[in-house]
Amino acid sequence: MAETASGYIQHHLQNLTYGQLPADYVRADGSVLSDATWTFAHSAQEAADMGFWALHVDSMFWSLLLGFVFVGLFQFVAKRATSGVPGGLQNAIESIVEFVDTSVKESFSGKNAVIAPLGLTIFCWIFLMNLMDLIPVDWIPGLATLLGIPYMKIVPSTDPNITMAMSLSVFMLMIFYWIKVKGVGGMFGDLALHPFSSSNPVFKVLLMPVNLLLETVSLIAKPISLGLRLFGNMYAGELIFILIAMIGYAQLPLHFGWAVLHILVITLQAYIFMTLTIVYLSMVHEEH
Amino acid sequence: MNINATIIGQTIAFAFFVWFCMKFVWPPLIGALQERQKKIADGLAAADRADKDLEQAQAKIAEELAAAKQQAQEIIEQANRRASAIVEEAKDDARKEGERLLVAAQAEIEQQVSQARNELRAQVASIAVAGASKVISKNLDEAANSALVDQFVAEL
Questions:
Q1: How do residues A148-194 score in pLDDT, each as one tens digit?
Q2: Do A63 and B18 touch (CB under 8 A)?
Q3: What torsion do the CA atoms of A68, A157, A153, A32 make, to the nearest 10 degrees?
Q4: Where are the annotated coiled coils located (chain B) (predicted)?
């Protein structure tokens, strides 16, 4: 191994970033840019210096690819779906759909045409993204290095951008349906009149700031915990795969054991993300 | 691990995939599932109905069988009654005919008896006349008279 252990780990945890570097920037290889340049980052420092308007090309590529795998497969089956005796593939797809449908029906009693497809998309997409974790950590990055691509992180759910984008989308949907179902006043009431309430109007008003503070914090905590839970689990799992990959031939049994455990983790994380989404969305539909 | 525009890209991708799933994936799949559920429910209901129909048909069969049996019984009884009536009638007729024949025979017998009596009476008269004429022709011979009377008596 040419690199140091920490270099190896850092390399595996660095996204392929495309963004603009400012003029007079000293690059990782020592060269100096004369103009502001759009380019791929060649070090973690460069990626950081690109600021907000940079893109993790590898995360987006794998995420989109897996998303298309999901919709492509499901649409392929959906087009041929028959109410007669289903074939093997339709059977498998149907069992997933039915599983999601049951999960939605268990925690959400209202009528909303978005929640079930949303849940299905979240479950399948996140599952596929997590599944990339089971591909040995050096295969695709190694291939990318041969092709001259400096970084390649193939598990999109180990990128906080990906997980936070999804949890923030869920959060926006939550706010949208909250206002749509109950109005701004109802939303304010949900935030200000619980958990402490009083039948005395004066106390009610006095308790409002306290309630507002508590409820707002717990509200803000929802998307953050939702996104970071998935990110943290996958990132930690990935890190352990990388650590295992560094210990030579002894990695084989360890890798196998961790991979088997991870099959459970990736499914569980996808399921948790879906279930919490459904729960959050059903919460804003409910009357207290 | 930087937060950057990837978050926007992923949000757009997420919205697209959810929209696509909502539009083209979920409805046909869940539709197929619901349709199959309905088919199965219909099939079960039809089986139930068929069971009930069968039960009804069997009840009807039993009913009609009983009715047919009863009718047959009635017909047999009627026939028996008719047969015994015919036999009675025949017996009656035979008895009447016998009585009639008996009466006729008796009348004939009586008629023949009276005829025979009349013939006998005529014969007795002629024999008496012949006997008397013989008695008169032989006259006074005691022995001859008595022999004649014996002969006459024997001829009676």
A1: 888 899 999 999 999 999 999 999 999 999 999 989 988 888 888 87
A2: no
A3: 110
A4: 47-89
Q: Which residue numbers of A are catalytic?
A: 225, 229, 233
Length of chain B: 156
Q: Is the pLDDT of residue A2 over 50?
A: no
> SS3 for B101?
helix
Terminal CA-CA length for chain A: 60
The pLDDT tens digits of the residues spanning A67-83 come to: 999 999 999 999 888 88
**What does DSSP assign to residue A38?**
E
Q: What percent of chain A has pLDDT over 90?
A: 49
A117: CB partners within 8 A, 6+ apart: B18, B21, B22, B25, B26
Instruction: Check residue B65 and give its pLDDT.
Output: 96
Is A212 exposed, middle or buried (CB count within 10 Å of its CB: 0-12, 13-18, 19+)?
middle
Separation of alpha carbons A112 and A109, rounded Å: 9
Contacts of B20 in chain A (CB under 8 A): 71, 75
Rounded to whole angstroms, the Cα distance separating B85 from B66 reads 28
Q: How confident is the model at residue A1 (pLDDT cuts 50, 70, 90)?
A: very low
**What does DSSP assign to residue B23?**
I
Q: How far apart are CA B136 and CA B130, in angstroms?
A: 10
Stretch A33-56: mean pLDDT, rounded?
Answer: 88
Helix (H) or strand (E) holding A56: strand A54-56
User: Rounded distance, CA A280 to CA A104, Å?
Assistant: 11
φ, ψ at A188 (rounded to 5°): -60, -40
pLDDT at A141: 87
A vs B, Cβ pairs < 8 A, gives 135
Average pLDDT value for chain A: 89
User: What is the C-alpha separation between B149 and A85, in angstroms, rounded?
Assistant: 139
For A23-30, the CB contacts below 8 A with 24+ separation are: A25/A49
What DSSP letter does each residue of A160-178 carry, written as one string? HHHHHHHHHHHHHHHHHHH
